[in-house]
Amino acid sequence: MNTQPRSAEKTTPYWWEAAPVGPAPDQSLASSVDVAILGAGYAGLSAALTLVRAGRSVAVFDAMNPGEGASSRNGGITSGGIRPSFATLTRKFSEKTALEIEAEGKRAREFLYDFLQDEGINCDFKLTGLFRGALGYDQYDDMARSAEGLARRLGVESYAVPHAEQRDYIGTDFYRGGVVRKDIGGLHPAKFHAGLLRVALAAGVAVHSHTPVSTIARDGARFEVTSAAGKITAQQVLVCTNGYTDSAAPFLRRRLVPVRSRIIVTEELAPDLMARLMPKGMMMGENRQLGFYYRPTPDGTRVLLGGRDSSWVGDPVAPTLRLRDGLVELFPELKDVRLAHSWFGNVAMNRDMLPRLFERDGVVYASGFCGSGVVWAPWLGRNAALRLMGDKSHGRTVFDFRPPAAVPFYNGTPWFIPALIRGFGLQDRFAFWRARR
C-alpha cells in the first residue's frame, strides 16, 4: 500500500531555502525624487538601476519584501516565451511585427545573460537548452517546422527530436517527440533577485519594503505619491507591479488578471534516477493550454514542476494534487516520491497575452509578462528607464504600443479564473483525444 503523503511538506518556495526574502535596509523617505517606481521585482529594480546609473534619484516602493512576489516564486526558466504562436501574431498584427517580437526575445535573453555576467550575479545560471514535448505526431510535425523556421530566421540552434530519440532528452514515453531550443537555460530566481537587489542598493537605489502606495496624483508638472511611509513628489512615475497590481494603479488593474502559477518540488532523488528522467539537465515544457513546465533543480537532485492553479483565494490542496498527478503521468517512477515544497505566485495575463510598455496620463507602465517574466521583466524594466530618460533609440521595444484592453466586468477580483481554467482543461482533453498518437 502507498503510504507516501500526496501533499507537500512545506508551502513556502523551495528557492527561499538558499535565498530567503527579507526587507531592504531601512532608509528614510526623501521628500522628492526624479522617479518613483512601484514594485521591487525584476522589472522595477532593473529600471531603478538603469536610472540611478544615469544620475537620476529613484525611490522604489514594494508592498511586501522586495522580490517576495513572482520574482522569487517562478520556475527560473529563461524562456522569454510569447503565448500567441508566430502564425497567430502574423494574422493579428503582421509578419513584420511577428518577426520583430521573435527577434526581441533573442535580444532580451542575451541582455539577461550579459547582465548576470557583467554584474557578477551568481544565481546558478546554466544555458541548458529547452525540450518541448509534442502530444501527438501531427503536433510534432508542426513543431518541427516551427523549429526549422526559428533556426532559419534567427540563427538559433533549434531542431526536432523524433519519438525514437526522445529518451536521450527526457525519461518518459508520454510525448510523441518534441523540439529543442538551445538558447534557453535555467537559473535560481531568488538568487537572481537577491543579486539584482544587492547591485541596485550599492548603486544608490532607495528601496522601501512593506510600503504600499495608496495613490498617484498629478501635482502640476510632477506627481504626488502617497505611501504607507508618507508622501513624496516625483518628476516621473513607473509602475512595475505585474501580477500584484492593486488599487494604487486602477487603470492597470482592470487590464491585468492575476493567475496563480503553482510549483511543486520533489524530495531529493537518487543520482541514477535523475539521470534517467533528465539525462541532459534541460528545461522542459509541452504544448498544452494548461501545459506543465519542469526542470531539475540547479543542484540536479530534485524535479521541479509547475502549472496553472485554478484557485484564487486561500491555499487549497487540490492544485498541488493536480500537479502531482501530472508529474506521475510523465514519470511513473515517481508515484511514491514525497513532495518537499508546493507554493504559488501570481503571473499577470492580459487579453492579447503580450507584455507591455506604455504610458497613460504621464505614468509609464511595464507589466503583463504573461508567465515569462524572468526574461521580459528585466528587459522591459530597462527599456522603461530609457524611455523615461528620453532615449528612444536605445529604449525601443516592439511592446511599446497601446495599453492592453480592459477585461469586461473585472476590477481586480479574478472570480472567473476557476471556470476559465476548467475550460482550458476541457480543450486540452479534447486535443489529446484527437491527437494522432
Automatic annotation (TrEMBL):
The keyword Transport does not apply. This is FAD-dependent oxidoreductase. The keyword Zinc does not apply. InterPro entries: FAD-dep_OxRdtase (IPR006076), FAD/NAD-bd_sf (IPR036188). Residues 34-385 form the FAD dependent oxidoreductase domain. Keywords: Oxidoreductase. Transmembrane segments: none annotated.
